[in-house]
């Protein structure tokens, strides 16, 4: 327990992960690399001036007033602060799975990540890709077929017999999670666009090799505000 005005129970897994998500909303590297003794030390240093706290609270109040979708609880059998249909940036997602934490913040730029400690494959998907942000080898065909079925294409280096592809196909029998995070564009107005957490999905079909094409059935439907962009039916 952290005593005083700022009481955070670090033995509480949810609070510990929320602390990490907040820290990595402010900093890129883990505390030792940023010159702090802990995640909390970094946060308290950032908000030590009253005007910073006031501005941060003003931003949070504004963002809260803009909420149009009611979030849903995640379906994991382990603790994470993530809520379905909420938006998160890449660092916040990594912190939510404890991949970024007090001791580490490894470089991560790929669109897929297997969190082996949680038996969870996460897919970070940009619907509208441009050559400026993606090389020809990473211009994957990712789109919604309808509100519940999503087409996703693996990395071009993955053959249909690879261990990774087999893990994707057999995730139900091995109790692995497949989790999708979707955004419309890599960047908006010069800033990285956050991802919407779509929740978990189940394997439906797959075909091809290098890349392998998958269809996934989402447990929760894609929100109406995103469905046109996700199915690529809106005017671009």
Structure report:
- By secondary structure, the protein is an alpha+beta fold.
- The chain has helices at residues 13-26, 31-34, 39-46, 50-65, 90-96, 163-169, 224-230, and strands spanning 72-73, 83-84, 87-88, 112-115, 120-126, 143-144, 149-153, 177-183, 187-188, 191-192, 195-207, 213-218.
- Strand 9 (187-188) and strand 10 (191-192) form a beta hairpin.
- Helix 1 packs antiparallel against helix 5.
- The relative contact order is 0.13.
Provide a quick synopsis of the model:
The chain is an alpha+beta fold and 236 residues long. It is built from 7 helices and 12 strands. It has helices spanning 13-26, 31-34, 39-46, 50-65, 90-96, 163-169, 224-230; strands spanning 72-73, 83-84, 87-88, 112-115, 120-126, 143-144, 149-153, 177-183, 187-188, 191-192, 195-207, 213-218.
Question: Keywords for this structure?
Answer:
single chain, 236 residues, PUA domain-like, 2 domains, 8-stranded mixed β-sheet, two-stranded antiparallel sheet, 7 helices, 23% strand
List the SSEs and their pairings.
Elements: H1 13-26, H2 31-34, H3 39-46, H4 50-65, E1 72-73, E2 83-84, E3 87-88, H5 90-96, E4 112-115, E5 120-126, E6 143-144, E7 149-153, H6 163-169, E8 177-183, E9 187-188, E10 191-192, E11 195-207, E12 213-218, H7 224-230
Parallel strand pairs: 5-8
Antiparallel strand pairs: 1-2, 3-11, 4-5, 6-7, 7-12, 8-11, 9-10, 11-12
């Amino acid at each position: 327990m952290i005593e005083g005005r700022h009481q955070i129970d670090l033995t509480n897994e949810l609070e510990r992960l929320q602390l990490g998500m907040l820290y990595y909303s402010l900093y890129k590297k883990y505390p030792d690399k940023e010159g702090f003794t802990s995640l909390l030390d970094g946060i308290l240093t950032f908000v030590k001036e009253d005007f910073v706290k006031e501005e941060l609270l003003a931003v949070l109040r504004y963002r809260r007033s803009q909420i149009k979708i009611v979030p849903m609880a995640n379906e994991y059998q382990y603790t994470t602060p993530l809520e379905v249909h909420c938006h998160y940036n890449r660092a916040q997602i990594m912190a939510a799975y404890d991949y970024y934490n007090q001791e580490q913040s490894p470089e991560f730029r790929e669109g897929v990540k297997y969190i082996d400690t949680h038996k969870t494959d996460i897919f970070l998907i940009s619907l509208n890709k441009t050559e400026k942000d993606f090389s020809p080898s990473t211009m994957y065909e990712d789109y919604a077929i309808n509100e519940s079925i999503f087409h996703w294409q693996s990395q071009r280096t993955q053959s249909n017999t690879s261990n990774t592809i087999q893990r994707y196909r057999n995730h139900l029998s091995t109790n692995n999670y497949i989790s999708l995070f979707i955004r419309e564009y890599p960047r908006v107005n010069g800033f990285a666009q956050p991802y919407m957490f779509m929740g978990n999905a189940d394997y439906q079909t797959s075909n091809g090799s290098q890349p392998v094409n998958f269809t996934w059935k989402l447990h929760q439907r894609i929100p109406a505000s995103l469905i046109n962009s996700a199915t690529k039916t809106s005017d671009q």
